[in-house]
Write a structure and sequence with these properties.
Blueprint (H helix, E strand, L loop, with lengths): L1 E3 L7 E7 L2 E7 L4 E5 L2 H12 L4 E2 L5 H13 L6 E3 L5 H10 L7 E3 H7 L6 H9 L12 E2 L13 H11 L4 E3 L5 E3 L5 E2 L1
Parallel strand pairs: 1-6, 2-5, 7-8, 7-11
Antiparallel strand pairs: 2-3, 3-4, 9-10
């Protein structure tokens, strides 16, 4: 992750199709500005970050498109710059540490807090993940509750989309009698 904090002058948006549905992308010339699987949330977040909705421009570079799709579908880390114009240093640390979780594995909010040296900060970690502007390339779907329930997903589509992403990566996911999605016991599950 190459974090940048200064907002670019020209921001555009486009829509990419994935097996998980449309991915709404805001970008500058060489940097990603925002990704979302939910158009409404995308529009709200763009306004919150940049104060305006950018013009549609489907001329995003082929390299950026390939890097995004490779990250989403192939589990490869996104190599390009990511813009974080309103994130605190702690929020950026949370998102950076998230990239250490291997594809096909999950960890708990508590695990992530301990990795950051703040063992009592599980809730703060959750709040940082709720505002992950790049949920498909910074894999917050790999963080679950300590009891095995999936919890929320900031990328749009809620727990159902999170379950689909995890299943795509080979994580055993099932829906309980109460309707909540849960991780099944097995390798790659770390509380």
């Amino acid at each position: 992750m190459q974090p940048q904090t200064l907002a670019p002058k020209n921001v555009y948006h486009t829509v990419l199709e994935t097996p998980f549905g449309n991915l709404y992308v805001a970008y500058a010339e060489k940097s990603l500005c925002l990704l979302s699987g939910d158009e409404r949330a995308f529009r709200q977040d763009i306004y919150r970050l940049y104060g305006r909705f950018p013009a549609r421009n489907d001329a995003m570079s082929a390299r950026m498109i390939a890097d995004i799709l490779s990250s989403v579908l192939g589990g490869r880390a996104y190599p390009g710059p990511l813009l974080f114009p309103s994130h605190t240093p702690f929020q950026r640390q949370v998102l950076q540490q998230l990239q250490e979780i291997p594809r096909g594995e999950v960890r708990s909010y508590g695990w992530l807090a301990r990795r950051l040296g703040k063992p009592h900060a599980s809730r703060a970690v959750g709040n940082a993940l709720a505002w992950n502007p790049f949920p498909y390339v910074i894999p917050c779907h790999r963080i679950i509750r300590a009891d095995g329930r999936l919890g929320q997903y900031s990328g749009g589509g809620g727990a159902n989309r999170k379950a689909r992403l995890l299943a795509y990566e080979g994580v055993a996911v099932g829906q309980g009698k109460d309707g909540t999605w849960r991780i099944q016991e097995g390798p790659g599950v770390t509380p």
